[in-house]
Design goal:
single chain, 437 residues, mainly alpha, 81% helix, elongated
């Protein structure tokens, strides 16, 4: 019975009637967006009826060309292009851009692909095309906030991820170091930093910095994904200028630290997925304790009124994709990775724990990735990895707390002391639990 049904389904899916109806559906999806765009007052020459017909024409043209007249598809393409060109020429004085004309050409092409059985590819491209057409205002707003340096930032990221990675040698060259593997970790870390940096720039470029609490939390959230140290330093300086807002600034610092914890979980889970659940179990209570302390302090404060802090100008985040930053991270990671293997071979777990504490002060990412990679290769047990990552994170928090003590107000220093105490207590509790594993 199942085999008979399968045969009938295959026969139906390969019939010209089914392909024609599928083409109409694809054209309807794109045409619906164009029809809505036309009702909004924009000049479009094809809508909810024309686009399905264009897609259907593509399928029928491919069928006729395949079965009867080989040149019919080329003539149909020429006809669609001519129609689009004439319409553009007529309406060139009324509008700018050729979005609808290009959409017509693409819709016809999707109809052709339907005939040749590329159903999944057609569905994918139809959704992407419709999404691009429907998000015109969002994309234009996005582009309007970009600067020349942002374009170079995007080009740097593409060079880093697309051009350099494939050409690197995939072999061990020194004490377990593989250039392709090292660069893969550079790409992963840079991707997260790139996303946070870009979102923060877009947020501050829009000038949406009114509303103190909202601005602080969003800035801490986005900035913390790039550099929680930079956020801590900026908010510590602000606490001296605005002593009455110490509780809110402290909450922003806590959010940035919490985001760093989430970043650690994401990084390690990408490299070694089996660590995801154990790290969640380890970090969720830690993050909740820090956030509870932050909101407790914030709720006790007496915040009155709002102010425009221009947070985007206050927080100086380094370009996470500058070549100096990239190679600095790569070198630190290589050094930590080699040193970690050496200490593990000669001193065992104690050597790795010492390395986690000391290197975490500088940057938590290299030691986190090094430990995770050793775990993925079967060189470390789970409790050792979790212990090292926890201690690296807390030692990094201590380093950031030092910034707050040096540059923050007296009120912020008292709040930070409370947060440091929470870190110490959780570290002791976490180490006790991990010893039992």
């Amino acid at each position: 019975m199942g085999e008979l049904f399968s045969k009938h389904f295959i026969k139906l899916a390969t019939s010209i009637e089914f392909k024609f109806l599928l083409s109409l559906l694809v054209g309807f999806l794109i045409g619906l967006e164009r029809e809505i765009r036309g009702k909004l007052g924009q000049d479009v020459f094809a809508g909810i009826r024309t686009f399905p017909l264009i897609a259907g024409l593509g399928t029928l043209s491919a069928w006729i060309s395949d079965k009867f007249y080989p040149h019919f598809l080329a003539l149909s393409y020429l006809g669609v292009l001519s129609l689009s060109a004439v319409n553009y020429w007529i309406g060139v004085q009324k509008r700018s851009g050729i979005t609808t004309e290009v959409a017509v050409f693409l819709t016809f092409t999707l109809g052709v692909l339907v005939y040749y059985g590329y159903y999944y590819e057609v569905a994918f491209f139809a959704v992407v095309i419709t999404l691009l057409l429907a998000t015109k205002r969002v994309l234009e707003s996005f582009a309007s906030h970009l600067e020349v340096e942002d374009i170079f930032l995007i080009l740097q990221f593409l060079t880093l991820a697309v051009l350099l990675y494939p050409i690197l040698p995939d072999r061990e060259i020194l004490y377990g170091l593989n250039p392709k593997s090292v660069w893969k970790f550079v790409v992963i870390v840079s991707s997260l930093s790139f996303l946070g940096y870009f979102l923060l720039k877009l947020y501050t470029a829009k000038g949406e910095t009114r509303g103190l609490v909202k601005s602080l939390l969003i800035t801490a959230l986005l900035g913390g994904s790039v550099s929680s140290t930079a956020v801590t330093l900026a908010f510590a300086n602000l606490s001296r200028e605005l002593p009455a807002f110490g509780g809110v600034l402290f909450l922003g610092i806590v959010v940035a630290w919490a985001v760093m914890g989430v970043r650690v979980v994401v990084l390690t889970s990408i490299i070694a997925p089996p660590l995801f659940v154990p790290l969640l179990e380890l970090f969720i209570p830690f993050l909740l304790i820090m956030l509870a302390i932050g909101f407790f302090v914030y709720r006790r404060g007496d915040l009155k009124g709002e102010t425009d802090l221009q947070l985007g100008k206050r927080i100086k985040l380094k370009n996470p994709l500058s070549w100096g930053e990239i190679f600095e991270f790569a070198l630190v990671y290589c050094a930590v990775s080699v040193l970690g293997k050496f200490l593990n071979a000669h001193f065992g777990e104690k050597g790795l724990i010492a390395l986690s504490v000391t290197s975490g002060v500088i940057d938590v990412d290299p030691i986190t990735i090094a430990l995770t990679n050793m775990f993925a290769q079967g060189q470390l047990a789970l409790p050792v990895v979790l212990t090292g990552i926890l201690l690296a994170t807390i030692s990094n928090n201590f380093f950031k707390a030092l910034y707050a003590y040096i540059f923050g107000s007296e009120l912020l220093k008292r709040y930070i002391t409370l947060l440091v105490a929470g870190n110490v207590l959780y570290a002791l509790l976490g180490l006790m639990v991990l010893k039992w594993l």
